[in-house]
Write a structure and sequence with these properties.
Blueprint lengths: L1 H17 L10 E16 L2 E22 L2 E15 L2 E15 L6 E15 L4 E18 L2 E13 L9 E16 L1
Antiparallel strand pairs: 1-2, 1-8, 2-3, 3-4, 4-5, 5-6, 6-7, 7-8
Length: 186
């Protein structure tokens, strides 16, 4: 069994290193998504409410295109998060555009940073509220096969959800650990 595990680790590590330096080239499509575990703090009238902290699960498909070597523009067409707070269930949807820079290290590892800009809404069975979303994400894309990536990152997203006629900020500060998988095509 020990020999089998050693051989498996050797095969996986050499295959990872063999298929390097293929991703961040002009004309490449990246298709995939991520799931995340989220911790958020409710903001009411511009003040964080520590009693309003929630944890939730999210799913976010993603499609990106490299306009030049290393520079990618992605669309997150529908990000969905479901949360519970004080016995009520909330559903949040986001549509985001994410320009990103992928750093090429001449290996199978691509650190990246991206801006998150978009629009979203939240509902709890009654009226829904919508507003602008913005933030940033940073992480690492690891090329694991000829055309596959494992994505690991950390993101921050500030959402604004307020009823019409209200001037104070209502929304969430969302800190998210992201793990995803994608394929890339040329």
């Amino acid at each position: 069994m020990k020999r089998f595990l050693t051989a498996l680790i050797f095969v996986l590590s050499t295959s990872i290193l063999t298929f390097s330096q293929d991703f961040a080239k002009k004309g490449t499509w990246e298709l995939g998504g991520s799931v995340g575990f989220t911790s958020s703090t409710v903001v009411t009238k511009g003040t964080s409410d520590p009693n309003g902290a929630t944890t939730s699960f999210s799913f976010s498909p993603e499609a990106g295109y490299l306009l030049t070597d290393n520079f990618e523009v992605s669309l997150l067409p529908l990000s969905f998060t479901s949360s519970s707070y004080n016995g009520s269930t909330f559903s949040q949807f986001n549509f985001l555009v994410a320009p990103a820079w992928n750093f090429e290290l001449q290996s199978n590892i691509y650190p990246y940073v991206e801006a998150l800009l978009g629009y979203g809404s939240i509902s709890s069975g009654g009226p829904s509220y919508s507003g602008l979303d913005y933030g940033a994400q940073a992480g690492v894309k690891l090329e694991v096969a000829k055309s596959s990536l494992v994505n690991l990152g950390l993101s921050y997203l500030m959402t604004t959800r307020k009823p019409s006629g209200i001037t104070d900020r209502y929304g969430s500060n969302v800190l998210q650990i992201v793990a995803g998988f994608s394929v890339f095509l040329r």
